[in-house]
């Protein structure tokens, strides 16, 4: 996630904070029947009825997660956001 998140930078996943386009989010996706879910840290760009659209930096791309497979989307906070700054 460089340059948005530097290696070793501490972040916190908050399941109840609202997120909006441009926020860092954790997208939890069902990988398949009898398989563990997969988690992706991405930049939230938008939502349609069929998908969650997110951006990644390496390699630079827009990714669409099928809404039917997305279990949850949670905002990822840095320390300043967690402290209320």
Structure, described:
- The protein has 85 residues and is mainly beta.
- It has one domain: SH3 type barrels (Roll), CATH 2.30.30.520.
- The chain has one helix and six strands.
- The protein has one helix at residues 79-83; strands spanning 12-14, 24-29, 38-47, 51-57, 60-66, 70-77.
- It is globular and about 40 Å long.
- The mean pLDDT is 94.
Short structural summary:
The protein has 85 residues and is mainly beta. The protein has one helix and six strands, in the order ββββββα. It has one helix at residues 79-83, and strands spanning 12-14, 24-29, 38-47, 51-57, 60-66, 70-77.
Name the helix and strand elements from N-terminus to C-terminus, one letter apiece: EEEEEEH
Sheet with most strands: 6 strands, antiparallel
The largest sheet has its strands arranged as 1-6-2-3-4-5
Poorly predicted spans: none
Strand elements, count: 6
| CATH domain fold name | SH3 type barrels
Strand content: over 45%
End-to-end span in angstroms? 22 Å
Overall radius of gyration: 13 Å
Helical stretch tally: 1
Which outline best applies?
Answer: globular
What count of domains describes the coordinates?
1
């Amino acid at each position: 996630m460089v340059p948005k998140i530097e290696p070793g930078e501490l972040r916190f996943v908050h399941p109840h904070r609202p997120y909006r386009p441009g926020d860092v989010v954790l997208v939890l996706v069902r990988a398949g029947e009898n398989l563990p879910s997969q988690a992706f840290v991405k930049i939230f760009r938008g939502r349609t009825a069929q998908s969650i659209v997110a951006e990644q930096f390496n390699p630079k791309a827009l990714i669409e997660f099928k809404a039917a497979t997305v279990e949850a989307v949670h905002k990822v906070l840095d320390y300043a956001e967690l402290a209320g700054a």
